[in-house]
Structures
1.
Amino acid sequence: MDDAREAADRLEALIEAAGSVVAFTGAGLSTECGVPDFRSPGSPWLTNMPIDFSDFLRDPAARAESWRRKFAMDDVYRDVAPGRGHRALAALAARGKIGAIITQNIDNLHQLSGVPDETLIELHGNGSYARCLSCGMRHELAETRRAFEASGEAPSCACGGIVKSATISFGQAMPVEAMRRAQAATLACDLFIAIGSSLVVHPAAGFPALARQNGAKLAIVNREPTPLDSRADLVIRGDIGDALERYVAPANQAHFR
Ligand code: NAD
């Protein structure tokens, strides 16, 4: 048996033995879909670096530049679809095996793979729409873009508030309700699987450590080492799609190939 197959078997044994599983996902889950992760070499996120929240609030020119970068990135990733990892997690959630998916991703691909809102916890928000920072009203990107391209100025809300992509920027407070749900799910699980995350972005990266401290088993699927590898019950240092492919429903596999 090859190493990858044996590792996937060990993960399957942990999943089948567990009563309550949490999946914690990072940018590595979406690289197979053509969305680069943050830290791998050549990442466009580092050239189109998100603008710090305080600069966004303070400076209209920074806001306009932030929207320009956002729409440039959206054009590149317009047609991305869920990969094997997303579809496997959606299938495990549909089977009732996974109770919560805590994600750092903002790409909306868990939703597109069919994961229901009550299962998904987005720690860093969602880049597929925008919100007013004052009244909280949702703004659709198509309309926001039209206004931006017509005026060259960062859009504002009817209430006068600043409109921002519904993601959490560097320097912006974490969403309270998502953090509360993530903590509750982490403390309730007996298996926590971290998938495609370098586990260096805090506070999100605190959840796998918390699960381990609380007595849950910890599995890590990531092609590079992480700071928590030495504390994990299982480390799969390989490709996410390969490790999780067996959970993708066969009809779904055929559809996406
Ligand atoms: P990261 O870029 O720090 O780490 C991703 C990890 O995934 C890396 O260690 C890499 O080796 C691994 N990886 C990449 N492709 C893989 C594959 N196919 N199989 C196995 N491992 C693979 O990502 P992070 O920990 O999520 O932190 C980055 C931050 O940037 C997050 O806060 C996230 O919000 C944001 N971000 C999101 C997206 C997205 O939504 N898709 C993309 C880039 C950045």
2.
Amino acid sequence: MEKIKINDTYLILKKGDITEEDTEAIVNAANSSCMGGGGVDGAIHSKGGHKILEECKEIRRKQYPNGLPTGEAVITTGGNLKAKYVIHTVGPICLEGKLTLEKKELLRRAYWNSLKLAKEEGIKTVSFPSISTGAYSCPVYKSAKTALETVIDFIKKEDFLKEIKFVLFTDDTYKEYSKALKELLNER
Ligand code: ADP
């Protein structure tokens, strides 16, 4: 685990399963249907239970009949999870594994809008998975840099959250995030 403090916010990297986290909110790397899927999305829906799906259906009906756009975020309760809320966001799909400038901006928006929504809801502790680096094929190291950069920018601009965690599922993902954080801190 790695833990650093920026202003009044702790930024933590850890290896683990996000469905076990007890932060107030966990973020779901959802797809635009918001109806569940594979990877972390599937794990969150299966452990959180049908309540999350019901709320997602309601959001689709009322707010996003054509699906949740990439980079946007919505919130449901956490159902049977320890986390009280799930923030569902959609990251970009990286064709041929390339994080182009356009995809990078969309990834940035997914992290930023998740944190913005957390703040609006008065949530002070949030856990993120590594958005877009599984089925959506974005390269881990570059995506990690974008993720960490965005979160650090948010902390510096919006002094509200107490703790932001990245809960990384594999050793490799953890190592890449750790390397990206070191590099970012050296650059700053
Ligand atoms: P995406 O479609 O956004 O790429 P995926 O769920 O396929 O989303 O993968 C995103 C990341 O989530 C991958 O690094 C994957 O290893 C990780 N992951 C899968 N299950 C979990 C889990 N239970 N907790 C945390 N991370 C997970």
